[in-house]
Amino acid sequence: MESANFALRLPSHHRSTQVLAPSPVFAAWFALVYYLAKKPSQYTWRRHMASSKNSVSGPEVLTKASVRAASELGVTQAQFVRIIGIDGENLDAPIDPAGDAGLRTRQLVQIYLHLHALTGNDSAAMTHWMQTKSRQFGSSPIERMQTADGLDQTLAYLESLRP
């Protein structure tokens, strides 16, 4: 009974910070939203993004992420072109996220992220898994990913391994 009385004597702000403390990310997000809502004419997110000199577009980010993922997975340039379904001569062009190549690129990055989590960022283990023949696919995952449905099947297999 005394502990219940003690709990009632605590100030309300003390109790709420113990039980319902917001995460720092939420607090920062809330502060940004509050600031933007308070002064929308002076500072908006679009104006900030338009004025940013170092802003990077979605296609450029997707292209960089896919190239890094492919290199970590041990995918050659020719295999990358077949997996994504792009022209081999236009490798420097940004990949459109809304197109079919963008979808396949996002799937390749997701495969990298799943393998990264499963292997603990061991590049050698990721490359070994990609190049070793699997009973699940009847071939190596890298060979399977170059077929029409192989990228989907590889991603579905890795997603099924998640706890």
Could you outline the blueprint of secondary structure elements for this entry?
Blueprint: H1 2-9, H2 12-19, H3 24-38, H4 45-51, H5 58-73, H6 77-84, H7 100-119, H8 123-131, H9 141-145, H10 150-160
Condensed summary:
With 163 residues, this protein is an all-alpha fold.
Structure description:
With 163 residues, the chain is an all-alpha fold. The protein is globular and about 55 Å long. It is built from ten helices and no strands.
Estimate the strand proportion: under 5%
Helix content: 55-70%
Tally the beta strands: 0
Number of helices: 10
Shape: globular
**Major sheet details:** none
Q: Give the oligomer, counting copies of the same chain as homo and different chains as hetero.
A: single chain
Summed over residues and divided by their number, the pLDDT gives a mean of: 75
Radius of gyration: 24 Å
Given as residue ranges, the uncertain stretches (5+ residues, pLDDT < 50) are: 1-11, 14-21, 39-55
- SS-derived structural category: mainly alpha
Main traits of this protein?
mainly alpha, 163 residues
